[in-house]
């Protein structure tokens, strides 16, 4: 990505939230006294840091926030451009101590977002993406030294953590492909002349207690009848070979999905060995889910 392109993209979404006081006019004049004014250049945009989300502890003692920045790597070969990438790291700021400065909670080439502070303020749940696998939910201790630990290992990733009031469980969501949900959709999938599951779909969890498989069996044949051809295509698309595109999002054609998904809810029981339980199996997306105050119901 060129500096010009990078600059225009970043400038188009530029905004910032400040957690501390702005400098006074006298401070500004003293900072610039005796130095010549320098024009702004495009690479100055690489110095901009953007606060993207803020969470305040329930007792107001501190804030955790995410900071988006641009990182550059030297060019791989002589004469080529540097490689630019976005990073989102987490920071901590003590709100009860005057003059306290923010300190980093996470560093490095990461994308850490969707912060959720535990009810007792002792832990921070967040979603980490490394660009290689599906994003998962992690926990970071805030009152004692420690490294973040991953508490979900869902096949399709996890997002949007929300705490139960007792701090012993999280609600998360995961985008589940239609082929991994039991039953058939109640809506038309817009494939003329075929049923929603017009191939030998494997049994999924919820159908006689069978766990989901990763590939369709039998494999089918590209030289068989229409049903066998669809089995063969489904077998290949499970490995993204080739990509099987089933729909286009209006004005979002650059972000095509291989298969329509639904946001299903999971409960993560937190312990030394976190346990994840799927709660919903329907052909509807479940968004904005939270526990009721007594932890007995879920609202979404």
What does this structure look like?
With 300 residues, this protein is mainly beta. The relative contact order is 0.10. Mean pLDDT is 81; it is low at 1-25 and 211-216. It has 3 helices and 14 strands. It has a 4-stranded antiparallel sheet with strand order 1-2-3-4, with no helix packed on it.
Order of helices and strands: HHEEEEEEEEEEHEEEE
Give the neighbour order of strands across the main sheet: 1-2-3-4
Outline the low-pLDDT stretches. 1-25, 211-216
Number of strands: 14
Class of secondary structure makeup: mainly beta
Helix content: 10-25%
Strand content: 25-35%
Number of helices: 3
Largest sheet: 4 strands, antiparallel
Rg for CA atoms: 24 Å
What gap, in angstroms, lies between the N and C termini? 39 Å
Q: Outline, from the CA principal axes? A: flat
Short description:
With 300 residues, this protein is mainly β. The protein has helices at residues 3-12, 25-32, 226-237; strands at 50-56, 62-73, 83-94, 103-104, 111-117, 123-129, 136-141, 149-150, 159-163, 169-177, 261-269, 275-278, 290-291, 298-299.
């Amino acid at each position: 990505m060129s500096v010009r392109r990078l600059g225009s993209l970043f400038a188009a979404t530029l905004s910032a939230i400040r957690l501390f006081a702005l400098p006074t006019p006298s401070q500004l004049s003293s900072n610039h006294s005796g130095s010549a004014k320098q024009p702004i250049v495009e690479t100055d945009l690489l110095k901009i840091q953007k606060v993207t989300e803020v969470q305040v502890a329930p007792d107001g003692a501190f804030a955790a926030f995410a900071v988006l920045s641009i990182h550059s790597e030297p060019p791989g070969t002589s004469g080529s451009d540097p490689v630019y990438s976005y990073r989102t790291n987490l920071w901590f700021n003590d709100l009860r101590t005057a003059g306290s400065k923010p300190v980093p909670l996470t560093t490095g080439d990461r994308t850490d977002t969707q912060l959720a502070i535990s009810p007792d303020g002792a832990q921070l749940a967040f979603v980490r993406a490394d660009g290689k696998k599906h994003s998962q939910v992690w926990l970071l201790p805030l009152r004692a030294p420690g490294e973040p630990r991953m508490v979900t290992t869902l096949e399709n990733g996890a997002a949007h953590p929300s705490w139960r009031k007792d701090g012993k469980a999280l609600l998360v969501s995961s985008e589940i492909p239609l082929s991994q949900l039991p039953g058939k959709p109640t809506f038309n999938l817009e494939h003329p002349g075929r049923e929603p599951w017009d191939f030998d779909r494997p049994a999924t969890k919820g159908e006689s207690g069978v766990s989901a498989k990763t590939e369709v069996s039998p494999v089918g044949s590209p030289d068989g009848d229409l049903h066998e051809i669809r089995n063969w295509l489904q077998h290949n698309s499970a490995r993204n070979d080739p990509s099987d595109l089933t729909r286009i999002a209006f004005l979002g054609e650059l972000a095509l999905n291989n298969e329509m998904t639904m946001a299903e809810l999971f409960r993560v029981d937190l312990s030394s060995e976190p346990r994840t339980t799927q709660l919903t199996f329907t052909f509807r997306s479940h968004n904005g889910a939270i526990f009721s105050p007594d932890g007995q119901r879920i609202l979404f």
